[in-house]
Amino acid sequence: MVGQKGQTMPYTPVSFLDQKRAMETLSKNVFSPDAFNSPNDLYNYLAMQRRGFDFFRGTEDPKIHNQVLSYQKNVLKHILHPNTLQRIVDSELYGNTYGLSLMMTDLNNSIFKKDAQTNVNTFRQNLQIAYTKNLISMVSGSGTGKYISTARSMAIYNLKKINKIASNSSGDISTKAHRLHLRTLIDNALKEIKS
Fold first, then answer.
1. What is the pTM of this model?
2. Cβ atoms of residues 86 and 146 within 8 Å
């Protein structure tokens, strides 16, 4: 109760430093270009163990990119969930200084900044496409009503930042094709928003 000895605030935002450290941890261990670097010969030993003749689910080769992307998508799904974004915006009213614009800018930078001027590895290509599609789904399509306007505004802002990064024509053919893919997704989404 208010005035009672030992009272605490019902809602206390996590400190700026802790939130920033959490985003840096995700950036380093989930989103960075070398987050899933392993010795190449390790991948040769990732096949599922076969037991008898019951291996009818598909091919035996390990789906390394699918597995990594599923980890990354799960993290993005939580960070970009409408409830999470709403909570961040609401908590700014009672002391949260790691606001939505800063969080989404940090997330965008962690997914794009380190290889904006270099070749983009295949793990990052998958991540960047998945993240871009998440942002697009926030501003176009049937699910946009779940997001508060502040989150949709940040999604549009970050899509335009990504489009600018993807305009860089340097890199190998795979990187150029990937950046063209990003620009095409974003241009189509932004056209849909305007109409």
1. 0.87
2. no
